[in-house]
Write a structure and sequence with these properties.
about 170 residues; Four Helix Bundle (Hemerythrin (Met), subunit A)
């Protein structure tokens, strides 16, 4: 083989060996995946709650639907449930009453508290516990993600661009 042919082959071999080198990457554990996804959806919803104009918190897509603010409180309810169930409490899903949170500041505060409480609980769980069950975390993450999509519709219906869709992301 000539040097011209050897060099590209050598470079490919080095690249392949580097990619397979120990410590380069490892599979994500179930615990890491659950914690990361739970935190991610909460970060997105919180960004929307803080960003959405206060004068539109009473907006509904249709009369029979929740307002934007009510929907944020409903998502917070899921976090409250996750925190309690994650601590092993025998709990039913009980929605927080949106009438108890009248302003954007109160709604954002209850969402932030629910996230802090749920995050504190999920961080205390040993990684091995996720091999037994990923509940309530997976269920609540899915619930929040479903409502995240609805929050996007609230943004779009008001001529707004959701934070995650802006060019800075």
């Amino acid at each position: 083989m000539t040097a011209a042919k050897t060099t590209p082959l050598l470079m490919i071999a080095i690249a392949l060996l580097s990619a397979m080198a120990p410590g380069q990457s490892r599979a994500t554990t179930t615990a890491e995946a659950v914690r990361t996804r739970f935190a991610s959806i909460n970060r997105k919803v919180l960004a929307m709650a803080k960003d959405f104009p206060e004068d539109k918190y009473d907006y509904k897509l249709k009369p029979e639907m929740r307002t934007f603010g009510d929907l944020i409180v409903h998502i917070a309810s899921g976090n409250v449930y996750a925190a309690k169930a994650g601590r092993g409490e025998n709990v039913q899903w009980d929605d927080l009453d949106p009438r108890d949170y009248k302003t954007k500041a109160e709604i954002v505060a209850v969402l932030e508290k629910s996230i802090r409480d749920a995050d504190a609980t999920i961080r205390t769980l040993p990684d091995a516990s996720f091999a037994k069950t990923v509940e309530p975390w997976l269920d609540v993450t899915e619930h929040s993600a479903e409502h995240y999509g609805l929050l996007v519709a609230y943004y779009r219906a008001n001529g707004l661009v959701p934070p995650e869709s802006r060019s800075s992301h």
